[in-house]
Amino acid sequence: MSTDNNNHGLEEQRRRKAENFKLNIRDNYDDDGTSYGSSEPEEISSYSGEEVKDQIARESKRSLKKRQRQEKRELKARNKRNRRIFRIAWIVSVLIIAAALGAFLITGMNDLLAINRKDDSTVTVQVPKDADIGTVTDALKKGGVIGEPTYFKLYAMVTKNNTFSQGTYELKKNMDYQAIITNLQGTSNRTDTIEVTIIEGQSVLEIADKLEEGGALGNKAEFLQLCNSSKFDNDFDFLKNIKNPGERYYKLEGYLYPDKYEFYVNEDPASIIYKILNNYEKRMAEKQAFDGYEKLTSVNKMLEKSDDGYTLDEIMTIASIIQAEAADSDDMYYISSILHNRLNADDSEGVSSLGLDSTKYYPYRSKDKLPAEIAANYKSRYDTYDNTGLPPGPICNPGMEAIKAALNPYDSSYYYFCHDSNGKAYYASTIGEHEANLEYIK
Question: Are both 256 and 164 inside the same structural domain?
Answer without folding.
Answer: no
